[in-house]
Amino acid sequence: MYTNDDFLILVAAGNDGRYDSRNSVSAPSTFKNGISIGASHSTGDDLSAGMLGPAYVADFSSRGPTADNRIKPDLVAPGKYIVSAGALPNTFGECDDGRPRPGNGKGGLTSMMGTSMATPITAGTAAIVRQYLEEGWYADGTKNSGASIVPSAALLKVILMNGSQMDMKAVDNSEKSAFGTSVTDVRPYDDAQGFGHISLTNSVYLKGLTDVQIQFWDNEVVNYNGLRRFNIKIDKSNGCSNARLSVTLGWTDPPASVNCLRCLVNDLDLIVTKDGDTSGKIYYPNDLDSRDSLNNVERVIVQDVEDRDEFTITVDAFNLDTFSQNFALVATGCFGGIANTIDTSKNAYATDNSEDTRTRNIIIIVCSAAGFCILVCAIALCRKKKRGQRGRKNYAVSTVRT
């Protein structure tokens, strides 16, 4: 990738994450320049009995970090369960038998789970982003509104990671436990979800069809001990109402030595500041309170931004092993576009309340079982009491006769 900077590689993180197994992301998915993909649950008919919904990480999805503590996986995409082609050789019309149940095949289709299901979904998403840039959709959200761009791999990567959703709810570990409540909490940039769940509606701008506008800079260069600064301004005048600014920096780093203890070669830093903020607040990347010295993707999220707010984005060449380093930078937020006109109130990911539903069902089952046991005990007690009363009556009659 370093010598072919438009070549983006995506690799499955692996399926060894059960029992919250840290450091289970396997090579080559531990690489720094491509994208390592973990798996989340799917939705609707692709969920088997007992599974939580699409806002949950699959239990098998391998966990980071890498041996040198870099964030892995990079992204998470649906991988349990996914219906795809299961072609039957020399058979025609084999896709006409309906949808298979999770984990099964039917006709020319098959339902499978794994990070190897999540990876092609992400690869297809990356291909759409590449087409989006080549056809110039980015300027005002319509085709050919901007110049055609052949993006670097770093730009494709940071666009996807900049728009990913890091509000996943947990890892679902309890599908096979009828009364299980086994979930593992997740947080942004952790070893289960990384930079979060892919979301095209939060990554690129289509006029009236997505939640953000996008600004980006590709194949920019920063020299040894140098700084680059970029300015952006929030503009909600045309209806965009997104309250968040997201900024992500990424670069294709030179190869490190085999079995490196610190694999980052060229160390860049992303710093975001709000113009006119007298508090001097600095927004550091990746949920840190200081610079990131390990990862070659750095993301800053600023919440509750207001119309006309202005920000300065600084890219600092903190330590380079080469004279210069190319990088890609992307920002999403309200930059003058119109609001999303799509009704997202039934968004399967955002409205996922499956854990509450499962908890309620478990309570109902437990209460029903307890109620049934109480009822059986009460009936048995009543019958025993009646038998006792009949016995006393018979004894009384027998005494009179005597």
Topology:
Elements: E1 10-12, E2 35-41, E3 56-58, E4 75-80, E5 82-85, E6 105-106, E7 109-112, H1 115-134, H2 153-162, E8 170-172, E9 183-185, E10 213-223, E11 227-233, E12 245-250, E13 267-274, E14 282-283, E15 297-302, E16 310-319, E17 324-333, H3 354-401
Parallel strand pairs: 1-2, 2-4, 3-8
Antiparallel strand pairs: 5-7, 6-7, 8-9, 10-17, 11-16, 12-15, 12-17, 13-14, 13-16
Uncertain residue ranges: none
- Main pleated sheet: 4 strands, antiparallel
- Output the radius of gyration: 28 Å
Overall SS class = alpha+beta
Strand fraction: 15-25%
Helix percent band: 10-25%
Q: Number of folding domains?
A: 2
State the end-to-end CA separation: 108 Å
Structure explained in plain terms:
With 402 residues, this protein is α+β, with helices and mostly antiparallel strands. The chain folds into two domains: 10-352, no CATH class; 353-402. It is built from three helices and 17 strands. The protein has helices at residues 115-134, 153-162, 354-401, and strands at residues 10-12, 35-41, 56-58, 75-80, 82-85, 105-106, 109-112, 170-172, 183-185, 213-223, 227-233, 245-250, 267-274, 282-283, 297-302, 310-319, 324-333. The strands form five sheets. Strands 10-17-12-15 form a four-stranded antiparallel β-sheet, with helices on one face. A four-stranded antiparallel β-sheet has the order 11-16-13-14, with no helix packed on it. Strands 1-2-4 form a three-stranded parallel β-sheet. A hairpin with a 2-residue loop joins strand 6 (105-106) and strand 7. The model has no long low-confidence stretch (mean pLDDT 90).
